[in-house]
């Protein structure tokens, strides 16, 4: 599969997992939810790495870089994202997180020498602009679902979303040279997840009250957290690493930003209401931009 297609599949994984994630994240709290999710994801990824033998491709240097990427992108980035989701809901946190495509394009140009130009640049602009349009104007005026409410200060939620997007960009781009060496993507994901989980363990052991769960993990919550870990972290993040191995980092980030557009029909299913006109306009722009990139690149 083309790297761009892998990135879109990863975006679909993140869209689906956000539906599993929102309820337990609000009940447990962002930090506790992320910790449990990383525990489930690490266990699943290491089982796959040991069975498949991919762990043999790891070395000390690779583990160090993967660990740094995991702390930045998963420990800090994921926790900030779910803290943002708890404050703003999945729709608005989605548009903030989608800015990681812009961060990635700029950082890939600065540090990797990647240039997006011509029809590909136009298509990327339409795709990212479509994502923003679909989410910003995708809410109906009479929408009153609990996920649309703002909890706490709006500025704090926006800042958390942007931090999550920046961390995602930095953590992914730093792995581009490493993935080109042929390291096993499943094992790489397992290392990233495990070291991010270790950072969470240190935070929990510090006694900080914010690291404590708001409520005990119930069986229903555990099932939702496991599904989120399997779909978003074990599958989605591993697909992104595969895409980074063969694709242009900036374009992979652009295609992976379509999560909010893919989330719209899922939210339609939950709300039982047709998305607003702005959502359809944004989705159409994203489709046109995707077509331009795929046909011209």
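-> sequence recovered:
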């Amino acid at each position: 599969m083309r790297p761009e297609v892998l990135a879109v599949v990863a975006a679909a994984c993140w869209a689906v997992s956000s539906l599993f994630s929102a309820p337990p994240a609000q009940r447990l709290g962002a930090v506790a939810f992320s910790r449990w999710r990383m525990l489930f994801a690490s266990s699943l990824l290491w089982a796959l790495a040991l069975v498949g033998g991919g762990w043999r491709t790891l070395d000390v240097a690779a583990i160090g870089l993967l660990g740094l990427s995991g702390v930045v992108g998963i420990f800090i980035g994921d926790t900030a994202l779910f803290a943002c989701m708890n404050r703003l809901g999945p729709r608005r946190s989605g548009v903030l997180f989608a800015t990681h495509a812009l961060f990635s394009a700029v950082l890939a140009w600065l540090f990797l020498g990647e240039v997006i130009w011509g029809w590909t640049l136009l298509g990327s602009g339409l795709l990212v602009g479509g994502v923003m349009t679909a989410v910003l104007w995708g809410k109906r005026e009479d929408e009153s679902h609990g996920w649309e409410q703002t909890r706490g200060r709006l500025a704090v939620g926006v800042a958390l979303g942007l931090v999550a997007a920046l961390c995602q960009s930095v953590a992914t781009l730093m792995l581009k040279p490493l993935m080109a060496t042929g390291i096993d993507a499943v094992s790489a994901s397992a290392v990233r997840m495990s070291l991010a989980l270790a950072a969470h363990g240190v935070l929990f052991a510090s006694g900080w009250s914010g690291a404590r769960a708001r409520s005990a993990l119930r069986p229903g919550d555990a099932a939702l957290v496991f599904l989120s870990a399997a779909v978003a972290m074990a599958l989605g993040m591993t697909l992104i690493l595969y895409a980074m191995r063969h694709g242009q980092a900036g374009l992979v980030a652009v295609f992976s930003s379509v999560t909010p557009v893919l989330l719209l029909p899922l939210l339609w299913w939950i709300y039982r209401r047709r998305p607003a006109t702005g959502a359809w306009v944004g989705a159409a722009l994203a489709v046109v931009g995707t077509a331009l990139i795929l046909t011209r690149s």
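The chain has one domain: 3-296.
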